[in-house]
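RECORD TYPE: inverse folding
INPUT: structure tokens
STRUCTURE:
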């Protein structure tokens, strides 16, 4: 399993395809809500976890806003869940954030995904809110730097 920071059009298409499968088809998020201006922004980074055979398993998006890292669109193909793919994507995003000197990451977690993020050290920092018809809560993690 290998997480790649998206640098090619094929890798980008892999990330977008996973998002379409998970969010648009599986969770019925309207396509106009799933795709946004950040998908084409040069400051947005995407990550994809690949199996040894090259199959794309999970994806996520990362960008810097207002002095913190924003983690977005973390998703795993249905047949690849519970195998660590999303965790690997999150770890890659956290490495990228540290490399850029960020002190905090935030994300909007679907309520059902909160336990996953809590295991990674994120804490709930908001009340519930709706995003694309799905209940979410904001979560944050302060990044620790080893000296």
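DESIGNED SEQUENCE:
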């Amino acid at each position: 399993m290998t997480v790649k920071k998206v640098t090619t059009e094929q890798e980008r298409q892999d990330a977008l395809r996973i998002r379409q499968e998970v969010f648009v088809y599986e969770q019925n998020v309207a396509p106009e809500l799933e795709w946004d201006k950040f998908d084409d922004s040069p400051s947005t980074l995407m990550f994809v976890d690949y199996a040894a055979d090259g199959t794309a398993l999970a994806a996520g998006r990362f960008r810097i806003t207002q002095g913190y890292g924003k983690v977005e669109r973390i998703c795993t193909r249905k047949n690849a869940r519970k195998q660590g793919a999303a965790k690997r994507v999150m770890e890659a995003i956290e490495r990228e954030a540290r490399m850029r000197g960020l002190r905090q990451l935030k994300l909007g977690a679907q309520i059902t995904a909160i336990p996953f993020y809590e295991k990674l050290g994120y804490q709930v920092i908001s009340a519930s809110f709706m995003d694309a018809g799905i209940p979410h809560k904001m979560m944050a993690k302060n990044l620790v730097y080893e000296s």
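NOTES: The mean pLDDT is 95.
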